[in-house]
Write a structure and sequence with these properties.
By secondary structure, this protein is an alpha/beta fold. 38% of the residues lie in helices and 24% in strands. Pfam families: EAL, YkuI_C.
Length: 400
């Protein structure tokens, strides 16, 4: 009787999914996705990866085996290899280090591949340790020469503390967040927020899960440096020809940029038209105590998209009522915001900066999503000869 029956060693197989660089217009690396071959010869997700009870040590043993197999596939190339590691596995690497050398670094060195070709993706799974301990482990990985990705931002435990502590080289955006941003405008604001965070900490954005042309356009529009997903290439046992992928992606990028240029030209023309109308108005003000009186009707007659008008002093304190459109010709006078200070709003000091640069013209803000109106809004602003700042909120039609 064969006592070894049923104990056949699992055959681990790493699949490689391409990662495309928008800057370089080609595939710059691959993510290693662990699979195991079952009794029927099919490749399935490693069972341990799906079991929350599996210890970090057991996971690390499997991942190191897959790493060795993956390294063989990028030998003699400049391709980067993206490998996943949970927070607990990062700490385990730290604990098992010899001197300043980590076990993962030793495996890579033995393969003859430079450490700077390896990118460690820190998964968003909650770890057993605090952020400070994780950050120390990540810093040691970085000192070894590895680049760092914070994976699946926007899913399980994503938070600003982890982003700030790790300061990843790349922020990987969660698939579902990208899809929701296409369906719901509010999620577009979240992507814009992540884009600003990435710029502030010097990170680049990688959008995963791209399955359609529309998702590709949304990712690039949201500041993607790197792209990944079935639209670009599926995970395979071999490295797909880069030129084949490039032939698929680059024409779509060209179409995106052509459409974007047309969109920008339309925006500029639209802004010129509104500014021309606003320049026709005399910005007269009458001061009564701490209140400023203006002629709101003249603004609402100019254009049906003008929704709100108000005036602040140079410090940002609102000194006029808040005039809001009610219908084609009517408006209400809202006194609730009188003496409220708006200087904390991002657009206010952008307005101040623009006035210093060019005080003879109306200025315009970037569009933002207004939760009350449930529309995109842009703010036109100007300072009159008395030093009062006029703000005109204009609701954008869909497509503008």
């Amino acid at each position: 009787m064969n006592m070894m029956a049923g104990t056949k060693e699992k055959q681990y197989v790493p699949l490689l999914q391409p990662i495309f660089s928008v800057e370089e217009q080609t595939v710059i690396g691959y993510e290693s996705l662990g699979r195991v071959r079952d009794e029927k010869g099919s490749l399935v997700v490693v069972p341990e990866f799906m079991d929350p009870q599996v210890t970090p040590l057991r996971m690390t043993v499997i991942d190191r085996k897959l790493l060795g197999l993956s390294l063989d596939k990028i030998k003699d190339s400049n391709d980067q290899l993206f490998v996943n590691m949970s927070p607990d596995q990062v700490i385990l690497e730290y604990e098992e280090s010899k001197g300043n050398s980590l076990p993962i670094a030793e495996i890579v060195k033995e393969s003859g591949i430079p450490l700077n070709q390896i990118v460690v993706e820190i998964t968003e799974k909650s770890g057993s340790y605090g952020t400070d301990v994780l950050a120390a482990g990540v810093e040691l990985l970085r000192e070894q020469g590895f680049s760092i990705v914070l994976d699946d931002v926007g899913s399980e435990s994503s938070n600003l503390e982890r982003l700030g502590a790790i300061k990843p080289d790349i922020i990987k955006i969660d698939l579902n967040l990208l899809k929701k941003s296409i369906e719901q405008r509010e999620y577009q604001s979240i992507l814009e927020y992540l884009k600003q965070i990435s710029l502030s900490i010097g990170s680049q954005l990688l959008f995963e899960g791209i399955e359609s042309e529309e998702e590709l356009y949304q990712a690039v529009s949201s500041g993607a440096t790197y792209l990944q997903g079935y639209f670009l290439g599926k995970p395979l046992e071999y490295k797909e020809d880069k030129q084949t992928i490039r032939d698929v992606v680059v024409p779509h990028l060209h179409l995106y940029h052509e459409a974007k240029r047309i969109e920008v030209a339309k925006e500029i023309e639209f802004e010129k038209q509104i500014k021309s109308k606003l320049m026709s108005l005399p910005l007269k003000t009458i001061t009564l105590g701490n209140r400023v009186i203006i002629d709101p009707q003249s603004f609402f007659k100019l254009d049906p998209m003008i929704q709100r008008v108000y005036v602040t002093d140079w410090q940002g304190t609102q000194v006029s009522p808040y005039y809001e459109r009610t219908n084609d010709s009517g408006f209400i006078e809202n006194m609730a915001f009188l003496q409220k200070n708006w200087s904390y709003m991002p657009f206010f000091y952008k307005h101040v900066k623009q006035v210093f640069r060019d005080n003879g013209n109306w200025q315009v803000s970037d569009p933002y999503w207004d939760k009350t109106l449930k529309k995109k809004v842009i703010v036109f602003s100007h300072v009159n000869e008395m030093g009062y700042s006029f703000f005109v909120d204009l609701v954008l039609e869909d497509g503008k």
